[in-house]
């Protein structure tokens, strides 16, 4: 199968491309800087600067992971626009590729797995969150809603669309743990605010496996929660991480400090959702790392 990936040089994309190559697929990667990312990707990946550059070799499947880091910078109005535009533009590029293929009478991809995030639901307090949960209207929700909406036109062309709303991605060498590990290794870690907010999480290998599962099961479409079946509160997460590092976790960060330092972006740390992968599990997907203990044991 020929698979086109946006965001292929990112933390999840690198592992995904590696797995696709191992399985014998032909991998196409869209990157604004092909020469800069070549070293991060397996040999054999065809890297070009736009989706339209692959018009002569149409993909069988699309995987859309591109987007500016949501926690990279404080959320000014300019940064909010950049966060939205980076996701919407990459998605629209894939839709435009399909429109061009259709106009040329070329075969269309059979499926598109398009990224979204737990932020779609906004702050949900302690209620259990499934794919049917009504979202709380805030910036993270509006960001994900526009991202998902940008992919919808592909369905009218007959391309199966699966949306994957991911939790915090855990693994060595990047992702959510990269910034958390240094203070915890020094014994300076602790909960954020009350610690009662939920942190949906997923091991990177399970997320990659879920993406491949959605590609290969041609009856699956619509939104799927991409998180492990046992989410934990921030307090439990910090205790569990500290336990695996044999360090204390006795330095909580008060909510007012996070709000002062990060502004609206502090909501990423102080709010959450008890998000469950109901539709993935109902479809028969099995998690290799269903609990945080098992995931951290493998990572650390």
Automatic annotation (TrEMBL):
CDD domains: SDR_a8. Residues 253-299 form the DUF1731 domain. InterPro entries: DUF1731 (IPR013549), Epimerase_deHydtase (IPR001509), NAD(P)-bd_dom_sf (IPR036291), SDR39U1 (IPR010099). SUPFAM superfamilies: NAD(P)-binding Rossmann-fold domains (SSF51735). Residues 3-217 form the NAD-dependent epimerase/dehydratase domain. It holds the Pfam family Epimerase. NCBIfam families: yfcH. Belongs to the NAD(P)-dependent epimerase/dehydratase family. SDR39U1 subfamily. This is TIGR01777 family protein. It comes from Vreelandella maris. The lineage of its organism: Bacteria, Pseudomonadati, Pseudomonadota, Gammaproteobacteria, Oceanospirillales.
């Amino acid at each position: 199968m020929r698979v086109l990936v946006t965001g292929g040089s990112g933390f999840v994309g690198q592992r995904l491309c590696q797995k696709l190559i191992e399985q014998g697929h032909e991998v196409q990667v869209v990157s604004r800087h092909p020469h800069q990312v070549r070293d991060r990707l397996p040999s054999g990946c065809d890297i070009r600067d736009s989706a339209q550059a692959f018009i002569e070799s149409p993909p069988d499947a699309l995987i859309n992971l591109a987007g500016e880091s949501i926690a990279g910078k404080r959320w000014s109005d300019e940064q909010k626009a950049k966060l939205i535009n980076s996701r919407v533009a990459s998605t629209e590029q894939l839709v435009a590729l399909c429109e061009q293929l259709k106009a040329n009478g070329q075969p269309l991809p059979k499926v598109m797995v398009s990224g979204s995030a737990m932020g779609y639901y906004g702050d949900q307090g302690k209620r259990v969150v499934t794919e049917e949960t009504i979202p709380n209207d805030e910036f993270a929700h509006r960001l994900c809603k526009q991202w998902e909406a940008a992919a919808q036109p592909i369905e009218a062309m007959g391309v199966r669309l699966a949306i994957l709303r991911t939790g915090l991605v855990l693994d060595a060498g990047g992702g959510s743990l990269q910034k958390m590990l240094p203070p915890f290794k020094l014994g300076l870690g602790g909960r954020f605010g009350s610690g009662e907010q939920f942190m949906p999480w997923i091991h990177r290998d399970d997320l990659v496996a879920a993406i491949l599962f959605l590609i290969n099961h041609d009856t699956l479409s619509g939104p799927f929660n991409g998180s492990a079946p046992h989410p934990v509160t921030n307090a439990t997460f910090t205790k569990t991480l500290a336990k695996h590092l044999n360090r204390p976790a006795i330095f909580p960060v008060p909510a007012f400090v996070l709000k002062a330092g990060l502004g609206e972006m502090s909501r990423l740390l102080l709010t959450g959702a008890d998000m469950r992968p109901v539709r993935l599990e109902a479809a028969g997907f099995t998690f290799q790392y269903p609990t945080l203990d098992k995931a951290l044991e493998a990572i650390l």
